Each structure stands twice: as C-alpha cells, then as structure tokens.
Amino acid sequence: MSNFLLAFIVLVPFVSATILGIMYLYSIKISKVPNFVFTLFGLSAPIISFAVGFSFFLKMIVNDEIILYKAYRWLSVDAYDIDMGFMADQLSIFMVLFITFVGGLIHIYATGYMKDDEGYGKFFFYFNLFLGSMLLLVLADSPIIMFIGWEGVGVCSYFLISYYYEDSENVKAGNKAFIANRVGDLGFIIAMVTMFYYAGANGLDYINLEAGLVNLPIDLLTFIGLALFVGAIGKSAQIPLYVWLPDAMAGPTPVSALIHAATMVTAGVYMVARFHFLYDMIPNVGLFIAYIGAFSALFAAIIATKQTDIKKILAYSTMSQLGYMFIAVGLGAYSVGIFHVFTHAFFKALLFMGAGAVIVALHHEQNIFKMGGMKDKTPLVFYTMLIATLAITGIPPFAGFFSKDEILLTAFSSEHYLLWGIGVVTAILTAYYMFRMIFIVFFGQNYKKERTIHFVPNSMLMPLVVLAIGAVLAGFIGIPEVLGGHNLVGEWLSNWHLDSLHVTHKTEILLMGGNILAAFIGIFIAYKKFYMYDMKDVAEPQGIIWNKFYIDEIYDRFIIQRTKALSIFISYKIDVNIIDKIVMGLSNSFIKSGHFVARMQNANTRFYAFTMLLGISVISTYLIIVMR
Amino acid sequence: MADSLLSYIALAMILFSIGFLGIISRKNIFIVYMSIELMFNAVNLIFIALGRYNESMQPQVIALIIIAIAAAEAAVFLSLIVVLYRRKKSLNSDIFTVLSQKDAAHE
C-alpha cells in the first residue's frame, strides 16, 4: 500500500523548510540567492502536500477507511513505545485539505506582500515550518506526536509575530503569544500525562486511549477534559488566555492570515473534536466549553466594535468566531464546529489578505479612520472583502451563513437558550463591526487628499479572487436538509456528531430567518452610523470598551507584576542570601582549609622533622598502650 | 645485669633525644649532620647493649654494618653540604627551600 505517502504530507513542508533555511543562511553569508528560488521551494511545499492530501481524500471517499501509517519507533521508555505514527481519518484529512489549500494561497499572497523584504527566504522558512507543524498536529496518531506539532506551531508563531524584531513592541507581542500559549501547554501536558498514566496501558494512540478511557471514573475524565481544554484555550485564544491574539497583529499581514485562518487558532477546536470520545462521556465539561466559547464570542465582538486598527478588528472577530466554534464542539456537534472552521478559513484569510492589500496600498497605514474612499482606488479588494464580510456576517448564500446558522441551531436545540441568545447578540455585533470597518475604509469621506496609492501586485490580488470564490461556495457543501440540500460535511464527519437535532423544520426555518434578520439589524446600524462617514468627525477613541475592558492592565497588575515581584524576591533575596551563601560558603571553607593545610608545607625541614617526631610518638604511644 | 641494660638503654635514649633536638632546633647544617650521627650512634649503642644482653653476635654485626654505611654516607653528606654552600654561600638550613611549594601555597 502507499500509506507511507501520508508521512510525506508532513515531511514535504519540513524538508522544504530545511532547504529554505540553509539557502537563506547561504544567501546572507556567502552570496545572494535570487528570490524566485525561495518562491519555488516555498510554494511547492503546500502544493505537494495538498496534492497528496487530496489523493488520500479521494481514496477515502471510495474505501471509507482510516489510514494508519507508523513511520518508525520514536521512543521506547519502559513499557511505553511511542511511534512516529500518522493517522488519516475523515476529520484529519478534511483539516489537511483546507489547511494546505488556504495555506497555499496565503503563501502565494506572501510572495507579493514580502517582495521587497530583506528576509524573504527566512520568512518562507518560517512559513513552511509553520505549515508542517500544523499538518503534523492534525495528522498525528497520538497526543504526543500531536504535541510536537502543537509546540512547533507555537514556536513558529513566536518567530513570525516578532518577525520585524527591530521594534521591541513586536518582540514583546511574540513573547506574549508564546508565554500565553505555554500556560495552555501546561494544561495539555497535565491532561496527557494523566491519560497515559490511567489509560495508556495498551498504547498511546487515539484508538487505544479511547478504549482505555471508557473504564475510568467520571471525576478523572472531567479533570482530563478540563486540562485538555486549558490547552485549547491557549491555542485558540479564548477567555482568559486570549490576550496574545490581538497583539499577534504585530507580525506581517500574511502571518496574521495564516495564524487566524488556516492554522494555529483552529488547533484548539480540532483538539476538542479529536478527543470527542472523551468529551462525549463528560457533557458537563462540554457545556462549560460552550459557555466559555459563547462569552469569548460576545466579549470579543464588543471589543471589536470600538477598535480603530483594521487588523485588530479582524483579530477580535477571529476570537469571536472561534467562540462560535467552541459553542458547537462543546455541545457535541463536532462536525458543525469543524464546518465553521472550514468556512471561517476562507473568509478570514480573505479578510486579512484584503486588509493587507489596503495596508500596502496606503503605505502601511493601519488606522481605519485614516483610510476612507478605498472603493474607487482598489475596487477588486473592495468586492472581495465585501464578499468575505457578507460571509462572516452570515448573509446567504455566502459561506458563513450555513455554518453559523447550524451552530445557532445546535445551541437552540440543546435547550441552553442563553448560549443561543449570546450567539444571536454576537451575530448582530459581528454584522455591526464588520460593516463599520467596510463603510469607513471603503466609503469614508474627507480623508487626507494628498495621498498616493501604492501599487498592489497581482500575486496579492489573485489569491483574493480564489478565496472570494471559496467564500461564496464553501458553504454549499453543508446545506442543511431543510433547504432541500445535502449536508456533505455532516455526512463526511458522521462519526463526529453527538445526536440529531430535536427541532422541527418549521423552527429551523424560523431560526434561519432570525439569523438573517440579526445580520441585517447589525448592518443597518452600521449603515446609519458610518455610511459615508466624515473623517473629520473622528474623536479620540476612549472609554472602557476601547481600552478592552482594561483586561491587559488587570493581568499586568495582578499576574505579571506579582510574578515579577516573586522573581525579584527569589533572585535578590533567596538567591543572594541563602543559595549563594551556602554555595559560596562551601567553596570558601574548602579554600580556607586548604590554606590551613598548606601552612604545614612551609619548607622548614626542622618543622617537618618535628611533625615526624610527633607522629611517631603518637603511633608508639598507641602501640604501647592499646596493642599490648 | 638488668639494671645495667636499663642504664645503657637510658643513655641511648638520651643521646637519641639530644640528636633529635639538635635536628629540630639548630639551623647550621653541620650541627644537623652531627645530630644525625649522634642518633645513629644511639641506635648502635642499643644494638650492642642488646647483643651483649642476649649473648648474640647478630646485633653487633648490624652495628658494624651501620658504622660502615655511616662512614660512606658521611662522604656523600659532606660533599652535598659543600655543593649546597657553593650555591647559597650559607650553611643555614632554612634557606634551602627550592623544592618547596611554599610560595605557591601562600598566594
């Protein structure tokens, strides 16, 4: 069988990243390598991975089987054997397809965006490494291998967020992302260790873990489920570990697109879906996840309504949409959550890339109140971004409508009406802040006249068109039955569906209408307030929402400063006064005793003779008195 | 006979102690050398006294060998003293510290 090809999906980006890294070093140390060589390698990796992934997808359509491939034994510790194993089931191959597809388009976009950058090769090295890590995360057959990818994604996000490292703010943002993720990783590690200890007797891959977890007491399962979810919170930027996501905008725009659309943030959702066998057994934790998701969605949407940085608006919208996904997976509708991940990948990548195009056109201006009137200047960007905005808002027939509608339907039918209510309110807010952005950026009046529009290369516009088509069509693979469609996603991921819905078709139609109405309410408010907005009216932004509810400040005050104080206490008090005293005291006493003994060797022969006499006397006395 | 043995031994011990005191208290190499010879002879005296006491010839043979070796050793020792004196123009035993690590130890 050609199962070994599965490993190549992961291997190709890693190999290409290695080659790119070596070439980049060669380029800066010895002689310049032309950019098209980097482009060639950088682009071929996602394309090859996509092709291989697609061939497996076709094979699985025909055979409907889970493909396993164990490359080699990675570690063998006592009774635990850890294989470098890959598993392609319906869920992971679905993820692979859109990761490589959207990721590939972002790569193409990046060739245009980063064209004049010094570190062009380095950028693609990170990009391929990022993609490879994400694919490893998705295709792993055990939590340990998944964790390698998980950490790889974390470290690459750090590299890429602090890509413009000359500015210390960017480096801080990268560190923030990395550290916030570390907090989540701790939860993941705890969950993993607990699982292996209690359920890992027969092997550590998902299939054996699933069998091992069945017999565990519910308390233990709850603990594992919560600890795993802490990991998901960190990666997928939910309350309370979301703070890194807005700051992650410090990186170049393609990075934001890659982090927010295809990779990284979806890892948490994927993990919950991957461990569905665990979460199926503990619906209470699932409910907790759903509520965390709901509040994150609402919270982020509220903050997004006041932001002025175009990328930050999109960052908060990502967090908000991730909240929707967690509502779905928390309620056991994993396929619905993954469907939203899929559609979100298209329109969010499109939004970021469109925003990047606008930013490039305006010479790296990110404040939306300094843009305005871009509709005539960059019409293609306007239309594609409009499609993406309609998609995220949930206007049929664009992609976001179907997935978001299904999530709200799941929330409604679960009879947790608070979740549903938050979802609907968030939908209104989403429509409002997205169209606020569109109206200000593309229709705003009285912007500074004396500006020039920077040329936007075709390599940046082409992916926009492809993604716009995707944002229109992606939803059609999941048309609900009530509209006479065929929910292909639900069918494909049929193992990831907890139970069927308990609502009549009539309610379903009503809810759908409600969602569309909610979207239009949001758009209408935005239209009233911001259509043909006069940029001269802009007041200095202020208030609790603009300051993001002072969460960063609260964290700084109560966690970071405390940690800092503790570190200072340990390094200046405990370390200096106790540790150093012990260690230095020990070495000093050796030195002192050494000096004392050295005094015996004073080169005085007569003293030696005297010592000898003393020794002999002691030994003789001993012999005479004791040994007689 | 026992009393006289004790007095021989006592004499030998006194001579040995005087010799040893000479070694540790005097600086002149010649006097150190003479003290060493004194200790030799104290030991010889014990050998001979015990030989007489046990009516054995063996200790007396050993004593003779010691005298012979001490004579040979005296030649080596005196020539060494001459060499040492040529080096430092002094007979003070305390100044010959070339082989010691005293300087290194007190850094």
How many β-strands of chain B, per DSSP? Answer: 0
The SSE order of chain B reads: HHHH
Number of extended strands of chain A = 2
Beta-strand percentage range of chain B: under 5%
Q: Please, what is the average pLDDT of chain A?
A: 87
Tell me the helix content of chain B: over 70%
CATH class of chain B: Mainly Alpha
Shape of chain B: elongated
Number of structural units classed as domains of chain B: 1
Our measurement of the CA-to-CA distance between the termini of chain B, rounded to an integer number of angstroms, reads 60 Å
Rg of chain B, Cα atoms, Å: 18 Å
Index terms:
heterodimer, A: 628 residues, mainly alpha, two-stranded antiparallel sheet, 24 helices, 72% helix, globular, B: 107 residues, Helix Hairpins, 4 helices, 0% strand, elongated
Describe this structure in words.
The complex is a heterodimer of chains A (628) and B (107). Chain A has 628 residues and is mainly α. Chain A contains 24 helices and 2 strands. Among the domains of chain A are: 284-533, no CATH class; 569-625. Chain A is 72% helix and 3% strand. Chain A has a two-stranded antiparallel ribbon with strand order 1-2. In chain A, a hairpin with a 2-residue loop joins strand 1 (67-77) and strand 2 (80-88). In chain A, helix 6 crosses helix 7 (206-213), helix 14 runs antiparallel to helix 19 (417-443) and helix 17 runs antiparallel to helix 19 (417-443). The model of chain A has no long low-confidence stretch (mean pLDDT 87). The longest helix of chain B has 31 residues, at 58-88. Chain B contains 4 helices and no strands. Chain B has a single domain, classed as Helix Hairpins (Orthogonal Bundle), CATH 1.10.287.3510. Chains A and B meet through helix 24 of A and helix 1 of B.
